[in-house]
């Protein structure tokens, strides 16, 4: 079994996000052929937004570090360090109010 040091990966990707013109960096933590789960670590520099998109399946978003807004339609929810939310099936975006790290878990059908 491989143990991933999420805190260390988060630091690396926050640094990369700060260096990238896009203000973001991501890496897949778990996925394999035929898997029904994918987990991705996403780092966003302060002020960056992951543009509106549709979730590919049931998903949750955990915020190990930072402060983000998950927005869909007229609804928004703030996530801070330690918060977890089910991602709505509607189109949504994510805005980082501070440099932030997210763990996206998606059930693939």
Produce a short descriptive summary.
The protein is 13% helix and 51% strand. The protein is mainly β and 109 residues long.
Question: What fraction strand?
Answer: over 45%
Unreliably modeled segments: none
Sheet with the most strands, sense and barrel status: 5 strands, antiparallel
Cα shape? globular
With strands numbered from the N-terminus, the spatial order across the biggest sheet is 1-2-9-4-7
**Mean of residue pLDDT values:** 93
Total beta strands: 9
Structural class: mainly beta
| Separation, N- and C-terminal Cα atoms | 25 Å
C-alpha-based Rg, rounded? 13 Å
Could you state the order of secondary-structure elements as H and E? Answer: HEEEEEEEEE
User: Approximately how much helix is present in the residues?
Assistant: 10-25%
What is the tally of helical segments? Answer: 1
